[in-house]
Amino acid sequence: MFPICSVSVDSLATDIRGLDDKVCRLATSVDTIGKDFKRQMEGFLQVARTDMAELSEDLKDAESLRLELADFFCEDERTFKLEECFRILQEFCDRFNKVKLVRRTSLLVVYISAKILVQRCDFDMTFHLIHPFNL
Predict the structure, then answer these.
(1) 33-83 pLDDT, tens digit each
(2) Angle between the 9-33 and 35-72 helix axes, to the nearest 10 degrees?
(3) Are residues 2 and 66 in the same domain?
């Protein structure tokens, strides 16, 4: 699986428009070839037209989302790109998860070190340590 930020919305829009043009040309070509072939292709063309209409609606939804996010993040609507936003959010999540891992590892080292120190000092009194993952 590849990251979503590697897909350009502009290239998707171009690809979808290209496919839509091909479906329209195919529908026109089918009309000129013959009635038998047209009848065989009608089901496929109907599904293709429906799918292309849905993809066009999805592009409109993505554009609406892009504008909403640009407004939310106080960015310029003309230059704001979804893929850049997703890349930044992915980097944030990666860094956040790395910090969480480092913190847990550090707490575990402190916990183990304190436990070893208590054992070496041979304390007679009971010494309770707080488990680092319960902080």
Answers:
(1) 878 888 888 889 999 999 999 999 999 999 999 999 999 999 999 999 988
(2) 160
(3) yes
- Indicate if 90 and 55 belong to the same structural domain: no
111: CB partners within 8 A, 6+ apart:
129, 131, 132
* Number of domains observed in the structure of the chain: 2
One domain, residues 94 and 32: no
Q: Are residues 64 and 90 in the same domain?
A: no
What would the DSSP string read from start to end of 44-103? Answer: HHHHHHHHHHHHHHHHHHHHHHHHHHHHHTT--TTT--HHHHHHHHHHHHHHHHHHHHHH
Q: b or e along 118-133 (b: 16 or more beta carbons within 10 Å of the residue's beta carbon)? A: eeeeeeeeeeeeeebe
Tokens coding 5:
């930020």
Query: Taking CA 131 as the corner, what is the angle to CA 127 and CA 133, rounded to the nearest 5 degrees?
Result: 170
Which position has the token pair 């070893």?
116
